[in-house]
Write a structure and sequence with these properties.
162 residues, mainly alpha, 8 helices
Length: 162
């Protein structure tokens, strides 16, 4: 689905949409746990729906697009090193989440833990809007030239004003 959408919608809008849906799914999950006494047996359906929403939005946005953007925006002379560093950070943060999840649940409770993760998604939306360039319709050669000319990431893909 992501491959079909990415060239039609663009990387940055799809990434922002996916992060927004991830944040909303996590907020819904946290709110469901906060109101679990009132929800009763409906909690399991809200939980499943929230998790499916989160996984689906990750699968068509942040999951594949992060790799696509990283491989396209890095200058050719550092692309291999940059890919290695990006992969290191990706797996390091996955490890941190996996190792701290149960400790956060124990310390903060389920609603606050999922609220915390939703907050991280919201920060990622702001970061994406401010710093992630749109590379839809921009060739690798144009990106290389943009970096050589000292261009800023947010200006990548924008047509010069004449």
């Amino acid at each position: 689905m992501s491959l079909w959408l990415v060239d039609r919608v663009g990387r940055k809008p799809l990434l922002c949409w996916g992060l927004t849906d991830q944040a909303l799914s996590l907020i819904a999950l946290g709110a469901a746990f906060a109101a679990q006494a009132d929800l009763g047996s409906s909690l399991k359906w809200v939980t499943i729906g929230s998790l499916v929403g989160y996984i689906a939005s990750f699968a068509i946005s942040l999951g594949p697009i992060a790799w696509l953007i990283m491989s396209k925006i890095c200058p050719l002379n550092v692309r291999g090193t940059a890919a290695g560093i990006a992969t290191l950070f990706d797996w390091a943060f996955n490890f941190i989440v996996a190792m701290t999840f149960l400790a956060l649940i124990a310390a903060l409770g389920r609603p606050a833990t999922f609220g915390f993760y939703a907050g991280i998604s919201l920060v990622a939306i702001v970061f994406t809007r401010l710093y992630v360039p749109e590379t839809k319709g921009v060739s690798l050669e144009e990106i290389e030239e943009h970096w050589r000319d000292g261009g800023r990431p947010v200006d990548l893909g924008r047509q010069p004003v004449v």
